[in-house]
Amino acid sequence: MCGIVGYIGNKNCVPILINGLKRLEYRGYDSAGIGIILNNHSEVIKNKGKVSLLEEKIEKMNLQAALGIGHTRWATHGVPNEINAHPHYNKSKNLFVIHNGIIENYQILKTGLEKFGYEFVSQTDSEVLPHLIDSFLVKGHSLFKSVQLALAEVEGTYGIAVIYQGEPDKIVVARKGSPLVVGIGEQENFVASDVSAILAHTKQIVYLEDGEVVEVCKDRFTAKTIMDKEIEKEIHEITMSLDEINKGGYPHFMLKEIMEQSSSVCNSMRGRLLLNEGTSKLGGLENVIDQLVNSKRIIISACGTSWHAGLVGEYMFEQFARIPTEVEYASEFRYRNPIVNKDDTIFFISQSGETADTLAALREAKIRGALVLGICNVVGSSIARESLSGVYTHAGPEIGVASTKAFTSQLVVLALITLLIARKKDMSLVDGKSIAEEMQKIPDKISAILKLNDQIEKIASEFKDVKNFLYLGRGYNFPVALEGALKLKEISYIHAEGYPAAEMKHGPIALIDENMPVVFIAPKDSTYEKIISNIQEIKARKGRIIAIASESDDNIDKLVDYSIKIPDTIRMLMPILTVIPLQLLAYHIAVKKGLNVDQPRNLAKSVTVE
């Protein structure tokens, strides 16, 4: 997501910070800034947009300093602009903080600080940090102690770097859930959220663990816990190249993003799931919840992978919220003179929030008077701005063109919305808690599936040269079949089709022979026996079968050529799990064909033209 870089030493930190920020551009961001301190002078320079624009602004100022921090921001709280960009600072503008992560209790902290006269200028959660730290500094504590005391009151995730004009010989950094490293040099030290930002200067790295606070001076560093227990840190020698580091050690962004899904799904749920109440809290829908609950019909409009997420949402809304739901291709929506009523709710789903077809459909729906809601990943995007209300997925930037973690985060958000509506209607507390508890287990189950990567890679070796693929699923897993086929088409250029398994006999079965691999999504649910019948029909015609099956299923192995066993969950959440082996299968097949999986031919990450 966001990027952090910092320097303390004898050199001019400004070019070091700018070059470090450039190394972090691959992560995705919408604004950038630096803060520097030299003796009795401090300066913050921020800019919306690219690091190059920030660099142009700084070049005109001839800045010189030996202590500074820099940040690239990817908006979560507050639109992308100069005010919301980092660093944030206290009223005296002599304490600077940069922050990655989300402060979940920022509103409570902000309210308390305002009572003591602290004023806020941005829309961000991060701005509470400099004011909170300042509230301890004014009581006579050191910077290091003030950071410790402040973080003891913080709930959420963070990777932070703090500098203070009153103590211009140090950077204080801390981590909880957001990566941070210290780079060790000769009479100079560095801090960064990613080794790539500082690898040009040092390969001696200290990794921070959760709950650690480190005071970094130019010739030493001291590590303690938030509770002030001293820690001995090991220095590691980095051997990887810059190209490898830029992808977090993964060969491709796509694989990195697949592997991030345990975290991205967790971030989509963070602070939103109310276990004891068996419901969810979605701040973006608070003003429209009554209208949403009383909708006569829900329409979901999207394109591509987001459309597949919408199909899963249709099953969720109809089963639990008991509201008739339709899923529309955004590219077709406005061209067929759709019937839209004022008591309809229309969700528009887009990873980027800039998809041209979806945006055009949204504007058409607004004209027709429906309740228009957005589900997207990018704060401040067009769909986010033009929707009446909505929900962010908080999946983090997705660089690989073929969407992976954005899809699973969309499914999580749809499940949260379903739970919210259903509990407002007639779902019992017991049923609500059961769903909420199962949702909480999903990240760990994703982690278990990701451990099957080597097994899936071996299966991919057997199918890299095929010309066609068929994907079959029933119920909630029919959209997963569509998504699995799309992933394979996008990055391997193999023709693939997804079908409801029952439709196989209505035409596609004519294609089956020993050269046609078929992927069945076959968890043990209410459709399991029907799926087994379909598997036997394919086997009778010599089709080669890969099954995504429940880890408790010992019988399916004798019916299929390859089985990938995954943890069980409730039906509405199963697509979040079943899609991940299909993402990995497509990825490994494409890699073994020697293709560029991050930038497949003819495709763009954000489709901004109709």
List keywords for this structure.
Rossmann fold, 610 residues, alpha/beta, 35% helix, 3 domains, eight-stranded antiparallel sheet
The coarse overall form would be globular
CATH topology-level name of the largest domain = Glutamine Phosphoribosylpyrophosphate, subunit 1, domain 1
User: Whole-number average pLDDT?
Assistant: 91
The number of strands is 27
Distance between the termini: 28 Å
Evaluate the radius of gyration.
26 Å
Number of domains: 3
Any idea what the CATH superfamily of the largest domain is called? Aminohydrolase, N-terminal nucleophile (Ntn) domain
Number of helices: 19
Assembly state here? single chain
CATH class of the largest domain: Alpha Beta
Name the beta content range.
Answer: 15-25%
Name given to the CATH architecture of the largest domain: 4-Layer Sandwich
